[in-house]
Each structure stands twice: as structure tokens, then as C-alpha cells.
Amino acid sequence: MGQKDRNRPAATMHRYANPARFLRLARTAQPWAAALTIICLSAGLYLGLFASPAEYQQGDSVRIMYVHVPAAWMALFVYTSMAAASFAALVWKHPLADLFAKAAAPIGAGFTLITLATGALWGKPMWGAWWVWDARLTSVLVLFFLYLGHIALTNAFDEPTRGARAAAILALVGFVNVPIIKFSVDWWNTLHQPSSVLRLDRPTIDPSMLWPLLLMGVAFTGYFLWVVILRMRAEIAARRIRALRFSRAAG
């Protein structure tokens, strides 16, 4: 493989690193992400709360699943995307990678908090307790603290680049928790049920429940894209204002 081929991924990434080019792309993508969120969320909530059947053992409490499961998917997805962005920032010095991780961390923390809260609401009638030190629940709680740690480190230094670097290292080190969360129900004997959707063979959940669940997953993904674009655009504007003030003060 030649030097040109080895440099191609970095060159492709830096093609979209220019803030002006990113802002043009963001202005186009943002309304589509908003529309996708609203449409899929409306359809998913209707099908999940009114059209789908109750579960024969859990009754109507199973409807918590339509918020809990997509929130858990997004908690893992957002952290994975943050780890990938942190890798790009540390290795390729991608100028927007740290900005993405900073914008995504509070959203991911929100999804993780929703996962923990809805899991407690679902666990009380099923397990008889709001919380148990189950492998899945404990590893998700660790994920929530990783998000909080990333947010704190990002804002802990007067020099933004130092905070961004420390947060990027934490994101990469903490990524080891993602496969632990995913496979905890397979590696250990836990109260949490095994995966019924994201399986190597086929989903074991009935289609009447699967479709609203997938719609909610798409809605949550669209919401993440919508909000992370808003936060990145706001951060780029704030950086431009700081740079302008600095140049005026220096002049």
C-alpha cells in the first residue's frame, strides 16, 4: 500500500473539517433530522402506547420498553461516536472532532439518565426493587459517570485544548465499558434479560412490538443528530466570537 493510499482516510476526514463547509452541510441536514425525529417519534409513540399489545406476563408495563430500549441504544451509540471522534482528534488532529465530542457528551448523558430512570420504573414491578447491583445496571451507571467525567474534564482547564485532550483520553479509555455493557448479560448471570433485537440470528420480539421499537430508535437517532448539530453550530459561533474579541484586544 502506497503513502497516498494510507493518507486517504485522513484526507477524506479533513475535507469536512473546515467549519464553513461543515456549517453548509449542517444547515441542510438539520431540518431533515428534525422532520425525521418528529415523524418517527409520533408514529412510534402511537404504535407503542396504543396499537401494540400488552405482554402476557408484564402487562402494560412493557410499554416502558419503547423509551428504555432506544435510550439504551443511544447511550452506547453516542459514547461510541465520541470515542471515534476522540481517536480522530488525537491521531489526525481533526479540528471538529473535539467539538463534536463536547457537543455530544451532554446528550449522551441525558440518554443514559433516561435509561437508568426507565429501567428503575420497569424493574420495580418485574424484580420487586428499584435497583439491583446487576452487571448490566452497574455498567450503565459507570457509563453515566464516564459522560459526567468527560463533561467535567472538557471544562476543567483554562486552556481549552488541554481539556479537550484530557476528555479525549478519558473517552478512549472508557470505551472498554461499551462491550461490557453489551455482553454483560451473556458473560454473567444477571437479572437483566438477554438481547431480543440486536442479535446475530434474528429478533425474538414480535413484529407488533418490534416496529414501534425500531421507529423510536430512529426517532432518538434523529433527535441526537438534530441537537448535536445545533450544539456544534453554537460552539463554532462562540469560538468565532472569542477569536474576534481576542483579535480586537490584541490590536
Describe this structure in words.
The relative contact order is 0.15. Helix 3 packs antiparallel against helix 4. This protein starts with a helix and ends with a helix. The protein is mainly α and 251 residues long. The chain is globular, with a radius of gyration of 20 Å.
Key attributes of the depicted protein:
251 residues, mainly alpha, Four Helix Bundle (Hemerythrin (Met), subunit A), globular
How is this fold's topology laid out?
Blueprint: H1 3-15, H2 19-51, H3 65-92, H4 97-127, H5 135-154, H6 160-174, H7 177-187, H8 207-250
Q: Average the pLDDT over all residues and give the rounded result.
A: 86
Q: Cα-atom Rg, whole angstroms? A: 20 Å
Give the structural class: mainly alpha
Q: Report the strand count.
A: 0
Q: Identify the CATH architecture.
A: Up-down Bundle
End-to-end distance, in Å? 49 Å
CATH fold descriptor:
Four Helix Bundle (Hemerythrin (Met), subunit A)
Helix % is over 70%
**SSE ordering:** HHHHHHHH
Low-confidence segments, given as residue ranges, are: none
The major pleated sheet works out as: none
Characterize the quaternary organization of these chains: single chain
Q: How large is the share of residues in beta strands?
A: under 5%
Count of helix runs: 8
Q: How many structural domains does the protein architecture include?
A: 1
Shape by Cα distribution: globular
State the name of the first-level CATH class: Mainly Alpha
In short:
The chain is mainly alpha-helical and 251 residues long. The protein contains 8 helices and no strands. It starts with a helix and ends with a helix.
